[in-house]
């Protein structure tokens, strides 16, 4: 499971799914990043996007062997970069290559409004790994005409014609992922996990016939393939060497083999070996074997995520998007947060969920704060700030999981913003002071509790199918909301102070609750156009959690809606009662997951998480007009530059920073171009 950090200026206090707006207060819990000189985290801003950069603290403390391992892993990740472009939409690579050729070869007027609009469009496409918005899934609309694009194509001898040209301007394939109720989600989604003529019914019927050798260890059917229909017959095209995306996968394997050669220990080397075998064969049993080996490989300073993993981009939740993250351990912060892992069983035993849904033995939960050294695929430029893997429930139960918070990414977000929106939307001075003093720590704990305790908590009843089968298109938002509720339940608990994680548990808890409700009921609406429904899984879960407790607490005025000077605010009047409500909702969401209750999850999400109060939405958008900072943020990656001796051996690896977003995107397209335009 992946926690997205989408708003560097909107989600003030809920760092778990948003961003912290403003520079962090220096606390003992903050990962120490020593800056020898002033570092500029901001690269540029355009449309609704802000591009940031991050540092790699501790790089010089790594041995040369460790630096090589990081370098090889980042190269492996970048080698598969084009895969996510093709997965996102079948025409993306054709369109991108044409637009880039125009950008690099056009000699005409670059001061015109049309050219500036073209530049912005290309940068938006780069950011989203395709022509659909990275968050809303809507097709990005160019602010230049088809005639102007034709002129640019002619002047640069670039070919872009037929459907790839037309789709930029028409309404075809308008939604990358469409999870709306009552439609054929596959047919109405442009994502390239399925052939153009495949339907929901085709997918469901195809996987009904798939049976795992061991029903207690269900395979992740569909995770690494495209499902197509040829002559009326549905079949899979598997991602593997010699199969779909084989040319890029061969490059990935080349670098993974080099990484295996400099692995820190035997367990790490073995896991890399199994991953290589998986890429070569595409075998899903090998994928499970790899996840078991990777989960057990907990020693060493370097770790990584690499493959087809998260299923958010599949409207039915089967197929994994390609992504990689290379990580260096932050020892100081990880040791401080290890206390949560060590006490995972206490949290499970004292949860509000029903006893029959609790795990008797929470196995192998590990939590680390890491510093990112490189990202690619679905993790870049829009990065998560926390990850909990593997996703298979049986591996979590029997072997455990790894949870990480991306410390230097969070640090970069915290140092790249301002506090204007916070002051606009807080109810009063007390709420502002709580956020400024305790918000950073509350965010860190929310992330840790969500990942370490939340995703590891609870069990599915015997005989109940996988969440793909039972909860279907609501799987992701239910799971993220459930883990969120675990975190919320314990954020207002004296146990955190007993464990030495906070000095004032009530103040930290209040800051966390204020921020969550403020965001879930108001601030995240900044990202929607007026009249739109909520569609993204995390955004839905924040709304259904917040709206549910607001409604259930009305009789006791737990959260009061305040109107002052024509502006709406939400003020929590009873934090203890709100915690009880979070606990009640946690109990119900775990029941839904444990029992596979599709009707209940549908009612919960559709009833509370999809529709938006239009009056509040209009007001929020109007109040937000005064702020010029973009609502979404992403990153360029540091560039690792190896230096060699006369024998060609690497002697050191230096870290440099790209000057512009375009510089990095064009460099990637030139050097990691391993797929044809049509696959």
Polypeptide structure, described:
Helix content is 44%, strand content 14%. With 679 residues, it is α+β, with helices and mostly antiparallel strands. The strands form five sheets. The chain has a six-stranded mixed beta sheet. The protein is globular.
List the helices and strands and how they pair.
Blueprint: E1 2-4, E2 42-46, E3 49-52, H1 64-79, H2 81-88, H3 92-105, H4 113-128, H5 146-155, H6 163-166, H7 200-208, E4 225-230, E5 233-238, H8 246-261, H9 266-281, H10 284-296, E6 302-308, E7 322-329, H11 331-342, H12 344-349, E8 365-377, E9 384-389, H13 393-398, E10 401-406, H14 407-414, H15 420-425, H16 429-454, H17 467-470, H18 475-491, H19 495-498, H20 505-521, H21 537-552, E11 559-564, E12 567-572, H22 575-595, H23 598-610, H24 614-624, E13 632-635, E14 639-644, E15 650-656, H25 661-671
Parallel strand pairs: 3-13, 8-10
Antiparallel strand pairs: 1-9, 2-3, 4-5, 6-7, 7-8, 9-10, 11-12, 14-15
Helix pairs in contact: 1-8, 3-4, 8-9, 9-10, 16-18, 16-20, 18-21, 18-22, 20-21, 21-22, 21-23
């Amino acid at each position: 499971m992946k926690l997205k950090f989408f708003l560097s200026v909107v989600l003030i206090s809920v760092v778990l799914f948003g961003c912290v707006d403003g520079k962090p207060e220096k606390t003992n819990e903050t990962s120490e990043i020593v800056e020898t000189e002033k570092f500029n985290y901001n690269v540029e801003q355009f449309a609704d996007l802000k591009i940031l950069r991050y540092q790699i603290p501790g790089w010089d403390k790594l041995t040369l062997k460790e630096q090589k391992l990081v370098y090889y892993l980042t190269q492996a990740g970048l080698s598969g970069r084009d895969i996510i472009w093709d997965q996102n939409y079948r025409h993306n690579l054709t369109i991108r290559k044409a637009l880039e050729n125009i950008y690099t070869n056009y000699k005409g007027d670059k001061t015109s409004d049309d050219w500036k609009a073209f530049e912005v469009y290309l940068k938006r496409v780069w950011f989203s790994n395709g022509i659909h918005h990275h968050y809303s899934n809507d097709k990005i609309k160019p602010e230049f005409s088809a005639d102007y694009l034709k002129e640019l194509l002619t002047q640069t001898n670039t070919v872009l014609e037929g459907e790839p040209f037309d789709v930029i301007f028409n309404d075809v394939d308008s939604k990358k992922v469409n999870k709306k109720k009552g439609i054929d989600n596959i047919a109405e989604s442009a994502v390239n996990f399925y052939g153009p003529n495949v339907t929901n019914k085709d997918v469901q019927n195809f996987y009904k016939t798939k049976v795992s050798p061991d029903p207690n260890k269900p395979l992740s059917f569909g995770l690494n393939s495209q499902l197509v229909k040829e002559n009326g017959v549905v079949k899979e095209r598997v991602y593997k060497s010699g199969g779909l995306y084989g040319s890029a996968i061969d490059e990935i394997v080349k670098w993974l083999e080099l990484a295996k050669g400099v692995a820190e220990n035997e367990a790490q080397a073995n896991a890399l070996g199994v991953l290589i075998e998986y890429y070569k064969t595409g075998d899903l049993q090998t994928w499970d074997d790899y996840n078991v080996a990777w989960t057990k490989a907990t020693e060493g300073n370097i770790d990584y995520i690499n493959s087809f993993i998260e299923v958010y981009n599949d409207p039915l939740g089967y197929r994994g998007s390609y992504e990689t993250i290379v990580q260096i351990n932050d020892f100081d912060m990880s040791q401080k947060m290890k206390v949560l892992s060590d006490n995972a069983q206490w949290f499970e035993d004292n949860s509000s969920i029903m006893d029959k849904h609790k795990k008797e033995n929470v196995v192998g939960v590990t939590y680390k704060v890491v510093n990112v050294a490189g990202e690619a695929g679905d993790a870049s430029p829009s990065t998560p700030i926390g990850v909990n893997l593997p996703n298979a429930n049986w591996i979590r139960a029997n072997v455990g999981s790894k949870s990480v918070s991306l410390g230097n990414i969070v640090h970069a977000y915290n140092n790249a913003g301002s506090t204007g929106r916070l002051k606009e939307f807080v109810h009063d001075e007390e709420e502002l002071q709580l956020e400024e003093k305790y918000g950073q720590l509350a965010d860190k704990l929310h992330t840790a509790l969500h990942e370490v305790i939340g995703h590891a908590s609870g069990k599915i009843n015997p005989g109940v199918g996988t969440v793909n089968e039972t909860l279907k298109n609501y799987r992701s938002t239910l799971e993220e909301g459930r883990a969120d509720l675990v975190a919320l339940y314990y954020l207002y608990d004296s146990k955190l102070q007993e464990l030495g994680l906070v000095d004032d548990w009530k103040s930290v808890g209040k800051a966390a609750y204020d921020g969550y409700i403020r965001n879930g009921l108001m601030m995240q609406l900044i990202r929607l156009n007026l009249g739109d429904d909520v569609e993204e899984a995390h955004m839905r879960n924040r709304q259904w959690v917040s709206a549910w407790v607001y409604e259930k607490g009305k009789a006791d005025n737990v959260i009061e809606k305040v109107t002052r000077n024509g502006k709406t605010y939400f003020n929590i009047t009873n934090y203890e009662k709100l915690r009880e409500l979070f606990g009640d909702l946690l109990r119900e969401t775990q029941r839904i997951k444990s029992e596979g209750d599709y009707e209940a999850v549908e009612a919960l999400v559709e009833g509370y998480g999809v529709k938006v109060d239009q009056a509040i939405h209009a007001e929020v958008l109007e109040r937000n007009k005064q702020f010029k900072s973009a609502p979404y943020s992403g990153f360029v990656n540091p560039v690792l530059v190896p230096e060699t001796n006369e024998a060609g051996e690497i002697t050191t690896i230096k870290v440099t920073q790209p000057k512009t977003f375009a510089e990095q995107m064009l460099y990637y397209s030139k050097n990691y171009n391993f797929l044809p335009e049509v696959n």
